[in-house]
Amino acid sequence: MPQAPADRSAAPHDPRPIGVFDSGVGGLTVARALMDLLPDERIVYYGDTARGPYGPRDLGEVRRFTAQIVDDLARRDVKLVVAACNTATAAAVETDPLAFPVAVVGVIAPAVATALRATRNGRVGVIGTTGTIASGAYDRAVLAAGGDDVRLVSAACPRFVELVEAGRTTDSEVLDVAGDYLASLVAAEVDTLILGCTHYPLLTGVLSYVMGPDVVLVSSAEETARRVFARLVDERMLARRAAAPHRFVASGDGAAFARLAARFLGPRLSEVDVERAGPPAARVHVGRPG
Ligand code: DGL
Fold it and tell me: Residue 122 maps to which CATH number?
């Protein structure tokens, strides 16, 4: 006889927010996936726009920035931190997850687990920033997930971040750049492609067009959100109802952050309030036009 579902109304809950951070706006694709899956959770988002992008930086430097931001979010009393940045995950999170004062979930392991389930021919591609690809973090994650028989083909795509931030996701130059970056993956006949950078979900159209309709695209944003969902349920840490609006903190220019945020968060969210990290305190409010 099927078991009656557990009475979750009596389950303990945790009203503290989820911390999410990135080098800038890219991690908002992960925040958006979290908002879709967990509408009762409140998010505190930290965009390190003063020091991003992280992709071209030294990994030791990215590790230091990551530790500082996780400390900042822990002081804001978050229950969990999502490192919504592949470069930060590669540099700091999956190498030593116990080094932080609060639990930190990265974006690499969730995407790898999904890709290994999705591949039919055992050939998986991954694209990311120069830092992520050079770190070898995806190769290690594939082995850690038991994918010894999988061939991982990697390609760094350094210009994609700049193009996405300029709002260019469909024009002919984007198609040409994507054609060049992805040529080795097409030639290797990968049947699954991991979008190993939080900006890349905005390029899904062009990536799918270049790779062809039979190649499965794996977004680390959605997979990570699913993993956070499962963790909050398993550890009985769900919030019952968001008591306050999401918070957005930027270390650099708040107005520039808010303008880009509207693109990443999508039409569903009409306005973004951005708070400046550290002194001088400042708040910027940007509403969407029309
Ligand atoms: N968010 C970063 C990532 O996912 C891309 C932007 C950057 O280079 O910092 O790797």
Answer: 3.40.50.1860
